[in-house]
Amino acid sequence: MQLGLTYYALGRAQDARERWEAVLRHDPARRDARMYLRLVTERKEAPAQASPPQPPPGFGGDPL
């Protein structure tokens, strides 16, 4: 999970997307990974927003 955020922060959105997809294959219930995938897709459509997605309150930074 955290690796996807790191990739995204480095401007490697495709690598981030692939990592979050891998997280979801391992654990389809991970709402945070699903949220990040949605956000990266939305930002791809609106590239003016360059900041990395932020987790909603209550989500920890547990690595997978």
| SSE string | HHH
Count of strand segments: 0
Mean pLDDT: 83
Helix tally equals 3
| Low-pLDDT regions | none
- Name the structural class: mainly alpha
Spatial extent as radius of gyration = 11 Å
Give the CA-CA distance, first to last residue: 5 Å
Shape: globular
Q: Which percent bin holds the helix content? A: 55-70%
Share of residues in strands? under 5%
Gist?
By secondary structure, the protein is mostly helical.
Q: What does this protein look like?
A:
By secondary structure, the protein is mostly helical. The protein has a domain of 44 residues. Helix content is 58%, strand content 0%. The protein has three helices and no strands. Helix 1 runs antiparallel to helix 2 and helix 2 packs antiparallel against helix 3.
Structure keywords:
64 residues, globular, 0% strand, 3 helices, mainly alpha
Would you spell out the secondary-structure blueprint of this structure?
Elements: H1 2-9, H2 13-26, H3 31-45
